[in-house]
Amino acid sequence: MSTTPDDDATTGLPARGVFVSFEGGDGSGKSTQSRLLGEWLEQAFGREVVRTREPGGTQLGRTMRELVLHGEDVDPRTEVLLYLTDRAHHVASLVRPALERGAVVITDRYLDSSLAYQAGGRELDLARLRDMQLWAVDGLLPDVTILLDLDPALLPQRLSATGLAPDRLERSGEQFHRRTREAYLALAAAEPERWRVLDASAGIEEIAEQVRAAVAPLLDRARARAAGAAGDPVDGAGGGTGGEPGAAPRPGGRLDASTVAP
Ligand SMILES: Nc1ncnc2c1ncn2[C@@H]1O[C@H](COP(=O)(O)OP(=O)(O)OP(=O)(O)O)[C@@H](O)[C@H]1O
Ligand SMILES: Cc1cn([C@H]2C[C@H](O)[C@@H](COP(=O)(O)O)O2)c(=O)[nH]c1=O
């Protein structure tokens, strides 16, 4: 959940939540997979799951989303700042508080979207953008980032499946989407301990299984950490009983509050 493995750098409290981000091109299946992962986590682990997204995970963010995706055309630097404003508020008001109370936070896009789309796609300076992102979120990085890698040639097919008119970014052209994809792959290659790259052209259930396999070990680690902090045995009665990747939902599993992205 944070840049340090055992403690939250900001609060000094034990880091008990788990932070998962989905990344990828438009129409790569992020919403589909974040929904499936959230349902599985609630049912199999009885964990509080907070599903959210960028831009648009907060009320302010929904205004920013409308502006950046459906408003007047803006230059690339203005675009960076719109996404950054959404992100800073999202982390401060929703993501960090949820992690601090022990929730699993699943976000459909996070700061890597800006590095791929604005540095890669719009060809802005990567190092500068990375510094700005880390400042805006006070250093908070996901425990795991799942890249749903899709050839942009498949984008029209995926977009038409949604039945929605393409937004300003989706209309940015094939070369833009190719640069974005290359940027994602380079980010993942540079930080393999955080990223998992999955083939987004595979079937929905096959991908869901790979996502579960990537996330389940993090839950075990967080559970052990939380139990240690509370003085409980790791396999004690409190909380979920855990589960294997792909395990059937646990009967009687506790369903906690879930914030679902609008
Ligand atoms: N693995 C898959 N194979 C085929 N179709 C898929 C797959 N995953 C998702 N889809 C379909 O593709 C469309 C886009 O999926 P989804 O909305 O999950 O993508 P997304 O990455 O969240 O898109 P966006 O970035 O545009 O919001 C939907 O119609 C969805 O049902
Ligand atoms: C967070 C973020 C997003 N974008 C782009 C990527 C997509 O084209 C849209 C968001 O739409 P989605 O339906 O939620 O995928 O915005 C970006 O360019 N930079 C960012 O930081």
Automatic annotation (TrEMBL):
Residues 226-235, 246-262 have a biased composition (Low complexity). Its EC number is 2.7.4.9. Keywords: ATP-binding, Kinase, Nucleotide biosynthesis, Nucleotide-binding, Transferase. It catalyses: dTMP + ATP = dTDP + ADP. Residues 236-245 have a biased composition (Gly residues). One of its GO terms (molecular function) is ATP binding. ATP binds at residues 24-31. Residues 22-210 form the Thymidylate kinase-like domain. GO terms for biological process: dTDP biosynthetic process; dTTP biosynthetic process; dUDP biosynthetic process. Phosphorylation of dTMP to form dTDP in both de novo and salvage pathways of dTTP synthesis. This is Thymidylate kinase. It comes from Salana multivorans. The gene is tmk.
